[in-house]
## 1
Amino acid sequence: MTTAPKPQRHSGPGHSAEGSDRSAYAFLAPYLVLYCVFMLAPVLWAFGLSLQTGGLLEGTS
């Protein structure tokens, strides 16, 4: 008696294997941290400073 071969699972386009999502985030994490520190934070800081009243030539009284 013969048995049928096991169906093989293929991960085609649009389908990811079980661990590839986690490894993708591991590769993206350093970029995202550096992006937030050097791009996003200064832009938000500058926006906050633009909302402040006063200027460089005014006194602090």
## 2
Amino acid sequence: MQQPRSGFMEQMGQERHAASRTPAELRTGFLGFGMGPTKAARFMIQFGLSGLKARARKQRWEEEVELLREEMKRVLRSLRWTQNQWQVRADRQRDDVNMHVAAGLRAYALRQVDIHRRMAERFYSEWGRSLANAVRAVVKEDEGVLDGAFDGLTDNDMQIL
């Protein structure tokens, strides 16, 4: 005859996944693991708050990504509109100035068309990179900041409880 299992490690071997357990069952598991009732309750509160904070951060980042994508579309539209405006100016017949000034104005307008076209192409190619490549580029730019992010913190600072 099999003896009933008890204790935290045996509970981990049960068929029910930890995510499907009730908070009371989880607290019981923590108590069996050597946590007192106060420490187990604090852990549960901290664990719950951390999850809520992480979810809020994720939602803010998703919103930020959505806003950035819309802003990128608007920048490209603006560059296209400006390019078209300069093209209209370049194609305009200028009878109010002599032909040398008109040629200079046309050359300037065509140069502006080219500048705005190249800016739009560059933005489009940069923004079209894969997410992984974009993250690598940002991390490479910020590696000095990231390296020093945890300097000066003690092990005590890093603990949850």
## 3
Amino acid sequence: RGEAVFTPFVDERVVYYPSSSDVNYVTQMTFIRNRYPDLFEVDAKIWPMSGDRNGTWEPEIFHDGKVAEIKTKKGLTNNITGGTQLESFYVIDELANVEASWNGMLTNWNGVLGNPVTMPDSTVLTRFRPAEYSAGSGFNSAWPPSLISEASYSMMATHGARISNIVSRTFISDLPNIDVPGSSKANQPGSIFIVGTNSLNLANARIRGEGGIYLETKHLVSSENVSLDCQNFSFKLGSTNGLLVIEKMLPDYVERLGGTIETFSAAWGGGTYDPPGDDTDSINLHNSAVAVDANLSLTNEVKVYEATLTATNVILRDNMKIVDKLLVDSETLTVDGTLNFTVRDINDSPYNTGQYFWNKSVTPRLTHLTN
């Protein structure tokens, strides 16, 4: 692929034991593609070789694994604490360890994804720093073309995953809520619902949600210095004193680690290299490699799925991207920000809906519009 190249990490070592005349040359490689070097940095570690579960020691084929790290260069803002925190992601490849590579495929429950989705037993994805990385050693060599050798055995595995802060059936839909009949904005994990029947004061409040934030009240007392951190909003807000102002409530983007991780791993060996000289023994060659393509981002666009605003006069100073529904029940409306209408971005779905037009149902009582 073009654009960013893969950064190589190579480890070479000679393994032999006094009780055996065999000499084994083991090479382990990790290649990481960092598409956005201004945002992320990459590193890799190698876990020391070990024996199998039966207690025999054949380290030329029983490698515990290679670990790739993709980490943000700067901290992502946490609006609750007011500070920042680094985000990282790790890929562990254990294909060269036959204890893992011959087991088969792990299968997710249908309750998690729309259809059965498998991943190699030898691949591990985690947001937590694993011991294999913390206690692992650095790579000790560089990439020479001569590392490609003949093999009497070989195996390979591929995997792709979407990294997201949203827990949903990603095989059905990339939307924050499932695109099936009967789906509700209320069934997304990680959502926050705040309902103030008569009044609601959001002044100085700090609220963070992953699935969505839903706000409802007949009278919004104040939203001064409020911090709402979420990529999906729905709200029904009103004012009983005649004026409702939406200002400095909705961000345009929020900071979240997300994107895709694609991996390709291979292990091969069994070939030999015969050094020059008549009295030298041949060397057994064993190789393994994993390539990690990280296409990650740090921001998610904020969308408003349903918005109902009720007051005599409504002023919109925040930018809003409306997905499903907008209702402004007022006599006057002032739009100082950017108001975008869109549709659900699902291809060939019979359930497509969206507030992609402006008609009387958006502002049924409107007499004055200022933009």
## 4
Amino acid sequence: MYCTGGVRCERASAYLREKGPEFSRVFQLSGGIQRYLERFPDGGYFRGKNFLYDDRIAVGPEISEQVSPRPWCSSSSSPSPGVVGRCLMCRCSWDDYGARLRCRAPVS
């Protein structure tokens, strides 16, 4: 696992390394994920999205200026091969979590 940089990353990676040798492969990226993606525009080994604190919410390696097109997930979504996350409610492929996002699946 690679931490993206910043204060939370510093604390989280130190915490994980304290937990034992099974967490010995937790690293921090010098300059953070943004610098890594600038150096490797195709994404390099990076998988997933870089979560941001603006209306873009999250961007992939292409660093799109677009706002995420999906305001919520859909229970009819088929799995997306590049997405490693899943909605906690409906289990569809999902990687755009945020406070304004909600699952559309009926709650049972």
